[in-house]
Amino acid sequence: MSEICLEIKNLSKEFIVYNANKIVKACEDVNLSLKKGEFIGITGRSGSGKSTILKGIYRTNYPQKGEIHYDSDEYGWIDLCKASERQIVHLRKHEIGYVSQFLKIMPRTTARQLVENAVLETGGSEEEAKEKAETILKHFDLDETLWDAYPNTFSGGEKLRVNIAMAMVKKPKLLLLDEPTASLDNASKSKVRTLIEQLKNDGTTMLGIFHDLEFMEGLCDKEFNMQRGVIDE
Questions:
Q1: Which residues contact residue 119 at a Cβ distance below 8 angstroms, ignoring those fewer than 6 apart?
Q2: How far is the C-alpha of 80 from the C-alpha of 123, rounded, in Å?
Q3: Tens of pLDDT along 138-187?
Q4: d(Cα 192, Cα 178) in Å, to the nearest integer?
Q5: CA nearest neighbour of 38 among 76, 11, 80, 5
Q6: What is the model's pLDDT at position 152?
Q7: What 8-state DSSP symbol labels residue 199?
Q8: DSSP letters of 58-110?
Q9: What is the DSSP secondary structure assignment for residue 149, as one 8-state letter?
Q10: Class of residue 112 by CB neighbours under 10 A (exposed 0-12, middle 13-18, buried 19+)
Q11: C-alpha–C-alpha distance, residues 90 and 190, integer Å
């Protein structure tokens, strides 16, 4: 398994909709493995269960069944479904990045501070954090007048660019991408693609879910399609 970074075995997750008195199966017996440095894309209609896989890896959801084995620098091979909260927090800070469509942040924290804090979490110095934050915010063409503003006032596309900057500036070992281009214009999509290509060249393993098939073209090593909680190559 030395070439494998992440291996998902028989992952199943369901949700109870109490007001409708029904059970919804989000994913069922998902099996997937990623080699180190590989980029796998998952497509499928909304509600097919794609995000559930990413949230299971990042441990914002607990699966009812299955295993998610990750080759961690800190802990060696670890089942993310059984890892302690302390271990998960460490992995999120130092090894596993997550880009969602939505920016969830601490209040009264500026865009610049958010990106700087991401660098500081990995052990970078204040000088390094300042330099890297400015570089990546410039890369995404975020107006400098917004750097010291609070992102809750930003547009959807501006928030997403900050979200991507926070994840990518850390150069994680494993990066999870949940519709990273959902509210971006073509110029911003190109900026995201450039950084994804750089991370891939540097050895980052990536798993992303997309509706934008054109964006995926020539970027992903493999593509899987998900329908009603079941995944197929």
A1: 128, 129, 132, 133, 169, 170
A2: 23
A3: 998 899 999 999 988 888 888 888 988 999 999 999 999 998 887 788 88
A4: 13
A5: 5
A6: 85
A7: H
A8: HTSS--SEEEEEEEETTTEEEETTT--HHHHHHHHHHTEEEE-SS----TT--
A9: S
A10: buried
A11: 31
- Are 173 and 142 in contact by the 8 Å Cβ rule? The answer is no
pTM of the model: 0.88
| CA–CA distance, 117 with 108 (Å, rounded to integer) | 14
HSE-CB for 144 with a 13 A CA cutoff: 3
CATH class of 1-95+174-233: alpha beta
Mean pLDDT, range 37-48, rounded to an integer: 85
Span(s) in the chain for CATH 3.40.50.300: 1-95+174-233
Distance of CA 28 to the CA centre of its chain: 21
User: Bridge-partner residues for 124, per DSSP?
Assistant: none
For residues 170 and 121, the answer to whether their CB atoms sit within 8 Å is yes
> Among 166, 208, 212, which Cα is nearest to 185's?
212
- Can you tell me the distance from the alpha carbon of 80 to that of 91, in angstroms, rounded to the nearest whole number? 10
What is the CA 150 to chain-centroid distance, rounded? 22
Look up residue 69 and give its two tokens: 């084995």
